[in-house]
Design brief:
The chain has about 650 residues and is an alpha/beta fold. Strands 14-15-17-18-19-20-21-22 form an 8-stranded mixed barrel, surrounded by 4 helices. The chain has a 6-stranded antiparallel sheet with strand order 2-1-6-5-4-3, with helices on both faces. It has a 5-stranded mixed sheet with strand order 8-9-7-12-13, with helices on both faces. β12, α14 and β13 form a beta-alpha-beta unit. α12 packs across α13. The longest helix has about 50 residues. The protein is elongated. The N and C termini lie far apart (about 160 Å).
Amino acid sequence: MRFVIPILSLVALAVVFVWVISSGQLNKTTVADKLSFLADSVPHLLLAMFIAQVAAVFLLIRFRGSEVVTNVVKMHDKAVEPKPSSEQVNTEWVLDALAGGVIVANQQGVITYMNTSAEKLTLWQRDKVLGEHVSHVLKLEDLQGNPIGEKAFETNILHPNYPLQFGQVKLYPRIGEERFVELNTTCILEHCKAVVFIFRDVTADRKVINRLYRQASRDALTDLMNRSSFEQYVEQLAHDTSALTRSHVLASVDLDNFKIINDTCGHLAGDELLKQVAQIFRRSVRRSDKVARIGGDEFAVFLEGCGLEKGRTIMESILTELRNFRFSWEGKVFSIGASVGLIEFMPASNLQIKQLFSDADKACYTAKALGRNQVFIHAEEKREQMSNQRVHDWSKLLKDALREDRFILFAQPVVPLHTGRNQSFRQYEVLLRLPFRQALLNPGSFLPVADRLDLMTSIDRWIIRKALEMLAGCRGDNNNGTPCMETRLMINLSGQSVQDARLFPYVEQQIKQFGIDPGMICFEISESVAISNFVHAKRVMNALHSLGCHLVLDDFGSGFSSLSYLRELPLSYLKIDGNFVHNLVSSPVDAAMVKAVHEVGQVMNLLTIAELVEDGETLVRLRQIGVDFAQGYYCGRPIPLVQLRDRLQSERGVDVKAA
């Protein structure tokens, strides 16, 4: 309307101009007349234009007034009508970015709204779920598997003023795998006319957190639990008094011979061994049990809801698996074992976890002190005090046995397996026993303690002196020329003695003192000792060989390292590791190992001895393989060395009378 007045003015001028031309006034007058005519017409023209403009202004005022009213009405309508679609899109963006999935349900549980994020998480289309019950679309469970969707809705209806936070829960979409979401619910509108479900996807975050937790709670090498996470787990169950009738068993495990493998083959081999041992633990325990690597070659096992006898059975089965296990590394084969300490306990709120682990470690230490490769149970306090006291008294007990000659020597025969072998001597291995409380302790019961107390050199010298004394006592002069059967004794040397530079002078002095033929003495050195102390072993073995003594490499096959070192040692015998011989009949692998060791001996012109022969079937199999000698209970039980001396002396007496 703002252009009406100018337009009317132009229209008026146009009308006047047209009238002048059509009337012929311009043709009838002169220029002066034209100007006079225009001057007379101007007032009338201005008056007409003024009247037209007044009318236009009146009409304009009326028209603009109605337009303002219309605009006010429209503005009011905008305040009450829904927002335009573009603003709705912006709201969706805000909800998706800040809240995640949003679903609104009325008091009857019927869905009235769902945003885009909720569509993506539930995989339900928005236009298909509007009007559906929320429990049909939003399937939620807590981490224990309990449904919580309907419970959350009902709780909000009953308590509209209290928003609910559920933390992380499981969301099951229409198709596909479950997802983890953080769930919040609250009422909106007066009298809780609607309930809002807000859930944010945290599946990716949870995976990252779980991966970080796993890295923090697992041993990087074996993927077993580490010490920290294991102790936390045990502490949690140890203080859980909700099931007081359930007992648990904690086991402390320490590998035997690990240091030899680690030092001989390097840390890569040690790491690989630990990985394979971890697999043995996993296979041997129950699904509910936990296994951890505490550090180095130390492991721990937690047997949940397990009695003492059941725990012993489980750990004994693990020990059996470890005994039968052979670790191979770059052509070398090793056997291992373990010492296990057990403790049974009941959950209690005041239970001291550090003391619990300490008691299990003490039981493991006791198992080592009693000979390794066994299970020791931490019993009631008095029995444990007696056991600890016995361990602490080892030093005095062993020193007294050396000083007072309390040790007893036994001899076990080493018999030939082939009748065609002509021998003018009999062979026996010298074994050590210790009398203790009306019993005889095997070497495994006290020699590990003696090794820790640095008493092995003294014990070895005691054995050498007593053995040579026995040979001198049963020696016959045989002046009448009657042939007699000589006796060869095999004496074990410890790692400490191999490294003792004064050992050879002592042996030489004892041989001269008793006048013994050095060829009737054979010294045994285990393969593990020879490998780990090779320089010292080679030195002492060459010295003893130069003196005329024979040498045995004991437990051959347990280390089975590079055979090149055998050429550098002046050996006469290879003694096959008894673990292979014990399972010779039942295990094709062990049979192959025995055969391989014997073939090595043949190539290097060495005689082979199989130990731990306990039945006739094994003996027959050894003969078939071609092994030269056998030793074990089936071939002959150990007898005291004094009885052997008396028997030899009596045989000599009979031979003399017959002559």
